[in-house]
Amino acid sequence: MTVRRPRASLIAAFAGFALVAAACGELGNDTSSEPLDPVAASERLDELADEIGWIDNQVTRSASIPPPTGANLADTLPDLDEFEIVVPGSGGVPAGAVEIWASTEKSGEGTDGWMTEVATDFNNSGATLADGTPATVALRRIASGTGYQYIARGQELPDAFSPSNELWIEMAGEFQTMTEVRSRMVDNVAGIVMKNETADELRATYGELSAENLVDAVIAGELVMGYTDPFASSTGLNFLLTVLDSIAEGDETQLASPDVASVFEQFQRQVPFVALTTLQMRDSVENDTGTLDTFVMEWQTYTNTDSLQSGFEFIPFGVRHDNPLYAVGDVTAAESETLELFAAFAEQPEYQELAIEFGFDPPPYTPTVEAPSGSTLIEVQNVWKDKKDGGRPVATVFVVDVSGSMEGTRIQSVREAMISAREFVKPETEVGVVEFNDTAMKRLDVAEFDLNQQGRYTAIAEDLSPGGGTAMYDGIVLGLKMLDDQRAADPELKTLLVVLTDGETTDGLRFEDVDDMIAGLRIPIYTVGFEADLEELGRVSSLVEAASIDASEDDVEFKIAALFNAGG
């Protein structure tokens, strides 16, 4: 078996391409300040850390640590009601309706609402089964990967599933009977979007702009690439498969082999961050000031993003995204008949024309990759989870809001979030903790997250006590200082800051005091907002390719798990 290796020569070196990640939430506007260069940013950080008057208040006890539960992302899934029934509305699923779970780019509103409109019209059409029973459907809006996780868990099942592509169907078939209703509901493809000048430079080096050549460019260090989370995003899973298939030279049996995984680890060294879904990628692009050079996106999303309609090129890759519709499990004859009636209704010319109007009209494309078995795709996801950090050590500092505004449910939610996060942080990850109210306090030095460190971390979470003002940016500065010092000792270190707060800054530094410094440091700041000022937190996270998470009480554990699954 031959494994593709990095090219020996670097013919051209391009500027790094930054990907703004919007994992789990929308971003606010980017800073208007120019980033400091890395050296100046580090020097400015030192100055600010001296100015804020932080306190060294190390935790003095260690809490008992329960044995690991082996929890994974599926174990943290929130109540299904967190995902809206968009047809017939928020009132739940009516008796007799066949429930369909549909991916977000077709079950929303506006141009993202094709299936929403079809389902609404179908229910109003008076369709009946052969025995005269009314035929109706209920439509639940849920990301393809999340829907798959519910199906794999088996506790809550839809009657039918319509993800963006067939990969999730293959995987779901490992756990439930999946019966094809239609292999295609509407046309779509996934692609790499890049600036025209970037595409021209790549052509000068590689000739054609194929996914394979782009993979070569990334592995060779000529591109820094970003994509969406392959545990949640159809585009992300498709891209991951395409990369591994390229390395394995089309040999499905080797997609998860050690040799392929080793080369993929090199690829991942040029992939700093991921977004959760294609729609959130779109939100980050629309909020960006024009610095994004290359990223992955579905055609339907791309063609509906006005800022991308000039100066960019779309290069399709992988399997098609034709939005199949499959029955799940042992559906009844009546449910099967309803699904057939619904699919036939959607195939009418007026609804196919509506699909084109909404952007489901990709350029002609023949897949370059075949969908492997579901079991192989699960192995492919595991390769990503194991190698996503590119072999680099990871350090995380938690910056925790203990101000008076966190009193009550907010501080309890933070406590639960910290405890939940412990389960998803790798033991080899270095972890530190900062608390802040009107003063920033170092509570735990950065160190490997072994049992001793976990015990101290857990004690901090148990002892959280709110009071005082909110100097959020002072806390961020102290956390960044801790990470910058670690990175100075180990330049290979992958660093991230996780801020748990309501975002209501009242004391200390302000955004405009730190934005250029944060942008120059290139340490991503993930913000987790509890009944929070999400616009403010979005501004912070958008400075360096990170995520802003709206943590409601019901789904915070799932969002935290997704963050660490994608972020490190």
Layout of secondary structure:
Elements: H1 38-51, E1 55-56, E2 85-87, E3 98-102, H2 114-124, E4 137-141, H3 144-153, E5 160-162, H4 166-172, E6 178-182, E7 189-195, H5 196-206, H6 211-219, E8 227-228, H7 234-247, H8 258-268, E9 274-275, H9 278-287, E10 294-298, H10 299-303, E11 312-320, E12 325-328, H11 333-346, H12 349-357, H13 374-387, E13 394-401, H14 409-422, E14 430-436, E15 440-448, H15 451-462, H16 472-489, E16 494-501, H17 511-521, E17 525-529, H18 534-542, E18 548-550, H19 556-567
Parallel strand pairs: 1-15, 3-4, 3-5, 8-9, 13-14, 13-16, 16-17, 17-18
Antiparallel strand pairs: 2-4, 5-12, 6-12, 7-10, 7-11, 14-15
Helix pairs in contact: 1-16, 1-17, 3-4, 4-13, 7-13, 14-15, 14-19, 16-17
Please, could you describe this protein's structure?
The protein is an alpha/beta fold and about 575 residues long. The protein folds into three domains: about 40-70 and about 390-565, von Willebrand factor, type A domain (Rossmann fold), CATH 3.40.50; about 80-190 and about 320-355, Periplasmic binding protein-like II (D-Maltodextrin-Binding Protein, domain 2); about 195-320 and about 380-385, D-Maltodextrin-Binding Protein, domain 2. It has 19 helices and 18 strands. Strands 1-15-14-13-16-17-18 form a seven-stranded mixed β-sheet, with helices on both faces. It has a six-stranded mixed β-sheet with strand order 2-4-3-5-12-6, with helices on both faces. Strand 17, helix 18 and strand 18 form a beta-alpha-beta unit. The longest helix is centred in the last third of the chain and has 18 residues, at about 470-490. It is globular and about 75 Å long. Residues about 1-30 have low confidence and may be disordered.
